[in-house]
Amino acid sequence: MVGTKWIFKNKTDEEGNVTRNRTRLVAQGYSQVEGIDFDETFAPVARLESIRLLLGISCLLKSKLFHMDIKSAFLNGVIQEEVFVSQPKGFEDSAFPDHVYKLKKALYGSKQAPRAWYERLTLFLIEKGFKRGSVDKTLFIFVDEKDILIVQIYVDDIVFGSTK
Question: What is the band of 145 on the pLDDT scale with cuts at 50, 70, 90?
Fold first, then answer.
């Protein structure tokens, strides 16, 4: 069983004023045991050469690049292993204090969260007709007649550009 922990964060504006309070429940992944709680943790990371290539191609094609950060990326990864987590502090069920939760999706902090997110995003892009790079598995290209859409994934950040 993996423990859970609440992470509290204040979001501030340019002047340092608190604009929002955020809370996130995370798994205490450091307590996960390989072979029991997870099998594989590897998730590819964009190569610097690919990012440079994307910037160069964008200049040649005179296309704009855009960046987006997927706010809840790891929460969208479906995990293959059975992982059980303790009840979050403050939300324990008094009728069943010793019960645990079985995760259906990845949780921030779990060892398999980055891999699960990458696999789900890859499957989506390939289903939509993108081709994955043969050298860098985080680079995806979609060609439609004379237009091209290039997508580069870096964990939960995506840089993309198109000629259309």
Answer: confident
